[in-house]
Amino acid sequence: MQLRSMAAVATVVLSLALLLLPHTTSAHNITHILAKYPQFSTFNHYLTETHLAAEINSRETITVCAVDNAGMAELLSKHLSIYTIKNVISLHVLLDYFGAKKLHQITNGTALAATMFQATGSAPGSTGFVNITDLKGGKVGFGPAENHGTLPATFVKSVEEIPYNISVIQISTMLPSASAEAPTPEPSQMNLTSLMSAHGCRVFAETLLKSPAEKTFDENADGGLTVFCPGDDAMKNFMPKFKNLTADGKQSLLEYHGVPVYQSMASLKSNNGVMNTLATDGAKKYDFVVQNDGDVVTLKTKIVTAKITGTLIDEQPIAIFTINKVLMPKELFKASAAADTPAPAPAPDADSPEPSKKKKKHKAPAAADTPADSPADGPSDDFADSTADDNSAFSCRSGPVVAGVLSMWFFFLLL
């Protein structure tokens, strides 16, 4: 009898633990929310078309200021490019939670809210902020901060709220912004190395400019390209190893930081697995594993684990992300003794399309030709990071399963 009582208590405790364990599923889906309201169908369509929907869904705290079809028709009559439309709509996505109650209780009656437009780095000065003012009498005004207090839009109603995760509200009209509506060049027309240099990847950009690898990057820009750009500190620390590589080895290492398809941040978080690179060439795989733990995305080679630390651009067909370490392929660097038996990499997602292998105009370097070509030693501390990340990821995902099995075992003791 006492054994059964103890088992019953244990079952309850483990069941509660199972419920409290963290889950990595998205808490909201903006397109599903707006699909229930036909008057926002055009706004909803462009959230998908511009890939803003995926960015909104990846955020834990967000407010979407939706505009009805009539308001969107006024915007579309300006015949803006899809990239400019994305900037305009991103000004309507606030990086904070504003439900109907909070809007009428703003401290001091007014607040400046950062927007997704400001987060892209494309908004000069304070142009990426929205002024929200409680006008009393049940009215709340909205206006771009660049309009110096003018509030052209007003709060209409709350569409749907999931406190304090996402609030979808309707405002009366689109927010006019000269900065957001300024002509935006297509990503493929941008100078990629200039963009990298201006945002903390100057050393990588300058190194790329001196290499035939730059041409490989440019040739893939129109069809789809994702670049993982090491920050300046990481690249500076790596340069002694880089200088010891052969010319082909240097080119392969730089191309190892590019993927010949467009991968948005949302797809990197959902489609984990093995990913080919611009350096992939026949027997020389030059691949790495993408893995995420919540909002943290890591890139794992057999030598090093790097984390994505920022986004320079994420607009089809080009995405450029900053990473905290230089990616080191096993084809060029040998792992330390501790890394001889690394943790197994996760299998590719069956639904995730593998990047196509594009033909290159140079051969991948041989494993060892001369002493100068011999693979360099991989840093053991990077492997320790990789092992720690693997263990923590396993713990997070396996916890619910273990708790569930133990709960069932205790349950059968009661029979």
Report on this model:
The protein is an alpha+beta fold. The protein is 36% helix and 20% strand. The strands form 3 sheets. Strands 2-1-7-6-5-4-3 form a 7-stranded mixed β-sheet. Strands 9-8-14-13-12-11-10 form a 7-stranded mixed β-sheet. Strands 15-16 form a two-stranded parallel ribbon.
Number of strands: 16
Oligomer: single chain
Estimate what percentage of residues fall within beta strands.
15-25%
**N- and C-termini, Cα separation:** 12 Å
Strand order of the biggest β-sheet:
2-1-7-6-5-4-3
Rounded Rg = 25 Å
Uncertain runs with pLDDT below 50, 5 residues or more?
A: 7-26, 337-403
- State the helical fraction: 25-40%
Briefly note the structural class of the backbone. alpha+beta
Major sheet description:
7 strands, mixed
Number of helices: 15
- Shape assignment: elongated
| Mean pLDDT across all amino acids | 78
